[in-house]
Every structure is written in C-alpha cells, then in structure tokens.
Amino acid sequence: MRIKNNTKKTAVAEDIIYARSEKDRLLGLTQYTTPRAMMFKTRWGIHTFGMRFPIDVIVCDATLRVRAIRKNLTPNHIFFWNPRWGYVLELPQGTIQKSEVECGDLLVREE
Looking at domain 2-110, what is its CATH homologous superfamily? Predict the structure, then answer.
C-alpha cells in the first residue's frame, strides 16, 4: 500500500504495513529494528515504549484528512489526539518534512 498527499501532490510513504490484528496494533513499530511505515486504526493515541528509534506520526479522520501531526516522537512517549480521528500513520523520522504534510491536507491510499 502507498499513501500520497493529494493536496500537495507528494508521496508520503510506500510499502506501508497495514496493521489489522490487535497484536500488530498493540506492538506497532516496536516489533521492528529499523523504521518502517505502518498504518492502523485506533481511537485515542499511541505509545513509543520499547521503540528503538524516533518516528513521525500523522493522524487522520475517516476521509484521510490530516488532523494532527507529530514530528520526531522519541521512544518512551505517549501521543494522544481527539478520539473522533481514527487512522494513524507511523512513519520514519523526517517523512513529514519530506512529503510536506500539514494539518488539513487530504491523503490518498493506493493499494
């Protein structure tokens, strides 16, 4: 799966892992030794306990409109957002800056 920023016409990430199982959502990127892109559905927030590297985070609503971003979320932290927004993208550090993602942008998911 790929994600593109439809507003800015930039690529956000390719080869994204979509976490479907409860285990994958709970563990997120903590189960990887190198940064990857992962997308999953959740309502309240994420943690980076046990993670070995900082990540960028994009939070979207059901239409994939960007509602919150967090650059350089370091290990052993928690990031909360409005529970109405249900999709999160965990990305390698620097991805938000490279893809020019800002709140309000519309992302597009391509299989």
Answer: Protein of unknown function DUF192 (2.60.120.1140)
